[in-house]
Amino acid sequence: MASCKSPYEPREDSTLLERYVREYAKGAVLDMGTGSGIQAIAAVQSSKVDSVVGADVLKSAVDYCKKCIKHRKIKEFLVSDLFEGIKKDKELRNKKFKKFDTIIFNPPYLPDELKVKDLTLEGGKKGYEAIERFLSEVNEFLNPDGIILIVFSSLTKKEKVDEFIRNNLLEFELLEKQHYFFEDLHVYKIWSSELLKRLEAQGIKNVKYFAKGKRGLVFTANYRGKKIAVKIDNPESKAAMRMENEAKFLKLLNKEGIGPKLLLHENNFLAYGFVEGVNIFQFLSSLTNNKNNKKIIIKIVEKIMKQLYVMDKLRINKQEMSHPTKHILINKKYEPVLIDFERCKYTLKPGNVTQFCDFLTSDHVSKILFTKSIPIKKDELINAARFYKRNQNNKTYKKIIKLIENG
């Protein structure tokens, strides 16, 4: 007879979470980190649950559940490092379990510094890495009206968990908090925000947190088979209507071949083609000193200047070109792409070209260019930029380009 001694004996966190699984679990259920199978067992006992899949990174836990837990609603137990095994299971992904109505997660959450050396308990160096990974992928597997039930410890840092939830366009409710010895246990119910539902309704899938800026949060996603970027207002920013502003100027500038291609936009989000590349400072620093790279750099600078000159002629000021490191990406084809247009505005005297001249003549950039055999004649370029500022025309612009080419 098979041994039914679980490799992971349920503790206080498991029994606390079990109570809410019985109350809230519904539809197709995924029990992530199933361990002893306690949550899977609780789920199948609910009349609201149709089916259950259990997953665990430990093969011993999966083997135990397969041998000792039998129920018509349980469809499968499989080995999976978070969602990796789910993605690879063809039978599972081709059926209605492609997305779940309830995802249960009792994550490992103790920091490595406690030296427990136990996969069922340790959540990474800080204790919250496993939760961060889980939340960054969960949207791909959760139905629009689905819920997540999760338990974690105060040792994991609640504020970090809250941040991860918000960063992945999710919302949450604290169902219960209980104190045990040296820690507090929190049970959360998590669900998709209305914004996430709107994005998915537009065909934008697999939304994942990418980066945080002063005025916007950026996510990657898939849209019509292509990788895109989605930007929303940063809730911590006091700046208003920035996404609307960026969409307005991107739509205009795209006609001039400037900026990533705008795909969709609404009041508080916009979606555009994702730019694979590195920022301009990283690019300049990475190139070795040879004739070919010198030509590449000069050509890139000329292309940037051309785009900025077009914006000057349109009387559009981007405002960040004196410090454009985060605002210019160089792709694999050595094409410069300007990004982040939320601060754009119309003005009679735009300063895009002159600001970029400030960047080129700054000490750290001019030193890098010098090592690539591109000595910037600082005084001459500054004077040319000043003259251009007073007379923004093709003649004064060409003078700046000539100085860069002959540098």
Please give a structural write-up.
- This protein is of the alpha/beta class.
- The chain has 15 helices and 19 strands.
- The protein has helices at about 10-25, 40-45, 60-70, 85-90, 90-95, 130-135, 160-165, 195-200, 240-255, 280-285, 290-315, 350-360, 365-370, 380-390, 395-405, and strands spanning about 25-30, 50-55, 75-80, 100-105, 110, 120-125, 140-155, 170-180, 185-190, 205-210, 215-225, 225-235, 260-265, 270-275, 275-280, 315, 330, 335-340, 345.
- The protein has a seven-stranded mixed sheet, sandwiched between helices.
- A hairpin with a 4-residue loop joins strand 17 (about 330) and strand 18 (about 335-340).
- Helix 1 (about 10-25) packs parallel to helix 2 and helix 11 packs antiparallel against helix 15.
- Residues about 115-125 have low confidence and may be disordered.
Topology:
Elements: H1 12-24, E1 27-32, H2 38-44, E2 49-56, H3 59-68, E3 74-79, H4 84-88, H5 90-93, E4 100-105, E5 110-111, E6 122-124, H6 129-137, E7 142-153, H7 158-167, E8 170-180, E9 183-192, H8 194-201, E10 204-212, E11 216-223, E12 226-233, H9 242-254, E13 262-266, E14 269-273, E15 277-279, H10 280-286, H11 291-313, E16 316-317, E17 328-331, E18 336-338, E19 345-346, H12 352-361, H13 363-371, H14 378-390, H15 394-405
Parallel strand pairs: 1-2, 1-4, 2-3, 4-7, 5-6
Antiparallel strand pairs: 7-9, 8-9, 10-11, 11-12, 12-14, 13-14, 15-17, 16-19, 17-18
Helix pairs in contact: 1-2, 11-15, 12-14, 14-15
